[in-house]
Amino acid sequence: MKYFVTGGAGFIGSNMVDRILARGDEVVAYDNFSTGRREFLEQASQNSSFTLVEGDTLDREKLAYAMQGCDFVFHFAANADVRMGCEHPKKDLEQNTIATFYVLEAMRKNKISRIGFSSTGSVYGEAEVVPTPEQAPFPVQTSLYGASKLACEGLLGAYAEGFGYTVYIFRFVSILGERYTHGHVFDFYKKLKENPKSLHILGNGKQRKSYLYVQDCLDAVFTVIEQAKEKVNIYNLGTDEYCEVNDSASWIAQRMGLEPEFTYAGGDRGWVGDNPLIYLDTGKVRSLGWKPKYGIRDGVLKTVDFLENNEWVFEVRR
Amino acid sequence: MKYFVTGGAGFIGSNMVDRILARGDEVVAYDNFSTGRREFLEQASQNSSFTLVEGDTLDREKLAYAMQGCDFVFHFAANADVRMGCEHPKKDLEQNTIATFYVLEAMRKNKISRIGFSSTGSVYGEAEVVPTPEQAPFPVQTSLYGASKLACEGLLGAYAEGFGYTVYIFRFVSILGERYTHGHVFDFYKKLKENPKSLHILGNGKQRKSYLYVQDCLDAVFTVIEQAKEKVNIYNLGTDEYCEVNDSASWIAQRMGLEPEFTYAGGDRGWVGDNPLIYLDTGKVRSLGWKPKYGIRDGVLKTVDFLENNEWVFEVRR
ipTM of this model? Predict the structure, then answer.
């Protein structure tokens, strides 16, 4: 079995690469290194079953060429900059929607028909039903990021119907753990290193979020791929708990041995389109026998430990 | 009040142009004439409140320039070739998703914040709940057309949240009436003119569809715009009835004074991604006081009458 992983040098992608190699399979990592890091693939690079191709998902030709001979695609490359959508609305369209179209077309060219896709709980917008199940009422989008991921899901569904693909759509909560380089734990850690006495929090700190540890996430992904039997398989992935941003900030500070004062930007959300509560009903994936080994607090602490041991991730690259 | 209508020379668009002029407002019709017809704008052209701009929605600069001074955008231009999505998957992405992004960006440039958008009942995929309400369970897409319209809806929602737009999303059933030049009535009429003795029907003829007469549709659009008060206003538009393709074929033949034999391609759907039943719950728009004046049979007969009086629409253009 040979896998193709877009965003293979990224947080979730590089962990997936290592997981695939640990399973004894082959893998091609495809990444443009806009946010991915070569360091995350150091271990993989020692393995003869690993191939790295530096390329952009918007480079159709290279993408299709690199995919040759693969059996399964994990499409994880994306603009994950949820908060800044309104600053550059084109980014989500291009790097998520259009790039996913190119991935699906490259698969068609290479006669590959199975794909696992990293969607997001953001597609539920401001969910009316919480915890939110996969069959929630048809949502209204509230962010360009969520809208672009929904557009990708739609493309996957249409390719499943039109071209016989089997698709696995994973609606993630935020993922935490080793190689995490983007999001609130990263931001809080960085701010606290700069100023250990005070931490400024977007919103009122009461936004509730759910998180999942990356290895639990990968366990869930393979559980679904091995057991789900539909053309279009859609699964929420998350923990059955949530925390407030305040909780998370306290855990981070505590792990760093700090006692900062919290200050707040105010309002019930961190940014335009931010959802005060993303909390998914994970009954569907649990019904396949999966459950997370780690809770949210574990995930936050593991992430802090990773950042403490890898402060090079904060260095600005040129 | 000055309106901007993309697809302004098309079936629904040109009827909207006439309606706007009849209301005493100004209108700019924007059309690339790929399927729109200059003949549909002959009457409008006599009116000093009417402006025609020939342009493509993918031509960002021209689009933004043409939109100057307008207050409200009706975005009706689209690839409406639902059936052929798999022959050219890029068409729906470009002409629907990306074009809609350009329309939204052109509005931003011109500080226009209100838009009415022609979505489709196809976004419900193979609906589990029938008649299907706006709040149906989160659907799986089954066609590239539906997926692209869903992507557009997502963009509209995100722009409403992120940029303060007010958006009106209309999920149409198929529309019938004067200037109809695309769809089963057109195809059946054309086939029966070529061979009055026999009519070949895709699928088994038992696919059930709902249709709405174009003037009823426009009544509903203005009812919603005048009364709905949300940032994102989503309304199904349709009649509270459906017919089988067989019924419709019989009405068409009868109106043409023919008694053809029906033959069938077989299967429970007309094409890949076709939904055997699109039938929308229109309780939401009815609650605003709107109801259709014409039933499906009326709409079919009016369409046949239009085609009989305008056979030039069948001429192949160069």
Answer: 0.93
